[in-house]
Specification:
The protein contains 18 helices and twelve strands. It is of the alpha/beta class. A hairpin with a 2-residue loop joins strand 4 and strand 5. It is globular, with a radius of gyration of 23 Å.
Length: 433
């Protein structure tokens, strides 16, 4: 009987671990230190503010919060794991670095499976913000921002010429060609694999599937990739779109072009506003507006695209994993705090319901001359593209950047560029196997 009971107990324990159940917190803990590492100081600011509120749930525990920005944080965490050293209770994993944690199943063995812990809250978050942190169909991070793409533009450039802000890509190219005659570009492009993916996702294409398999070679995805490159080619040839070297994309060259009036704006994610445009172009307050990303004429594809994100994960082996998850849940998976996150550090909510709140859609932004910018994102939150990670994501982005460079300078055609990247990736994947 005792042996049977032991076996049942072990089976139940295994089932709880498989389902992502939390380790039990220390029953007699009167002092608890929670740690968090990130690459972004704004997350430290926000988590500290929420932790002060959350700790009131445990009046008998003295919490200490050690939340900090750590240089080369992903290298450090992976190094600590390899050396058997401690890692923080909470870790912000930038989506571009997530594949590093997929290697060897690190994310599964060292971080909590949050899928079942999210429970009914799972569907409150748009699916496209879960998938960047999925491994073998399970979620290991809660994202920090919607990262939806819009068009940042200077309305005076259109108004002075009697032009309308384009809403489709055909209109965009037509208007851009007219402006190009005066040496003005509608937006810019660079040789970055992530930027290419941004355009591909809007059109409805995919690079990897839900299993991490390379699906760009499939007929539909390949056709979409070629179509996207040809769109960019037409814009580059007419002058509607300007090529900018990747080293200059985030620096003063772009801002100076805005000031000089020879660049209308940028097609970029929501974070571009508060982390690139506003800090570098304070003197241009009230000169910009936000509009929706142009859509494809045939109605296929999405209203927007997506680029970026940081998902917070919980260390599985931490004795404080229960408290770490509860704090993360309170901070990121409650409607009120999703709204506070936007109010305090300008990251748009990942919950569609937040865009019914007047604190999001009713907020007037002085930089955009009082425009209620949240209304633009409310129109597109229901159509954020879903995309999937892969162990070969970084390999793709690096090689795609190389292909874009020779495509933009006219050395290869769109078909050749896509065939080249497909061949390269297939060889790399075959070699890894």
């Amino acid at each position: 009987m005792r042996r049977t009971l032991l076996i049942v107990t072990l089976l139940l324990a295994c089932a709880m671990i498989w389902a992502g159940a939390l380790p039990a917190a220390a029953q007699d803990a009167s002092e608890v230190t929670l740690t968090m590492w990130t690459h972004d100081g704004l997350y430290v600011q926000f988590f500290n503010a929420r932790a002060e509120e959350w700790q009131d749930r445990y009046p008998d525990i003295d919490f200490t919060f050690e939340f900090e920005v750590v240089p080369s944080v992903f290298d450090k965490v992976l190094g600590n794991l390899a050396a058997g050293e401690e890692i923080p209770d909470l870790l912000g994993i930038e989506q571009g670095s997530f594949p590093r944690f997929m290697q060897g199943g690190i994310i599964e063995s060292k971080f909590l499976d949050l899928t079942d812990l999210l429970a009914d809250d799972y569907d409150l978050i748009v699916e496209g913000r879960h998938t960047p942190y999925k491994y073998q169909g399970r979620v290991y991070g809660v994202d920090s921002s919607l990262c939806a793409v819009v068009y940042y533009y200077q309305p005076s450039i259109f108004e002075e010429r009697g032009l309308s802000v384009p809403t489709t890509w055909d209109e965009y190219l037509e208007t851009g060609a007219a402006l190009a005659e005066e040496g003005i570009a509608m937006s810019y492009i660079t040789d970055h694999g992530g930027m290419f993916m941004m355009y591909l996702l809007q059109r409805g294409g995919a690079i990897f599937d839900e299993h991490g398999e390379f699906v760009l070679p499939e007929e539909e995805n390949r056709a979409i990739a070629v179509e996207v490159l040809n769109l960019l080619r037409e814009g580059l040839d007419s002058g509607a779109i300007r090529y900018v070297p990747s080293a200059e994309v985030w620096g003063p060259a772009i801002i100076n072009a805005y000031r000089e009036g020879n660049l209308v704006g940028a097609i970029m994610p929501d974070w571009y506003s508060d982390y690139i445009l506003k800090p570098q172009a304070e003197d241009m307050a009230e000169q910009f507006r936000i509009g929706r990303m142009p859509v494809w004429e045939d109605g296929d594809g999405h209203k927007t695209s997506v680029w970026g994100g940081t998902g917070f994960a919980v260390a599985k082996e931490s004795e404080n994993a229960q408290y770490a998850w509860e704090l993360l849940q309170y901070t990121y998976v409650t409607l009120e705090n999703q709204i506070k996150r936007y109010e305090e550090i300008a990251y748009y909510p990942t919950m569609a319901a937040a865009f019914h709140d007047d604190r999001i859609v009713g907020l007037s932004d002085p930089f955009y001359a009082g425009q209620k910018t949240g209304e633009v994102f409310a129109e597109i939150v229901d159509d954020v593209p879903i995309w999937y990670q892969s162990l070969f994501r970084r390999t793709f982005e690096l090689q795609m950047a190389a292909e874009l460079a020779v495509f933009f300078d006219g050395t290869v055609t769109a078909d050749e560029a896509i065939d080249n990247i497909v061949q390269y990736m297939e060889d790399e994947i075959a070699f890894a196997e």
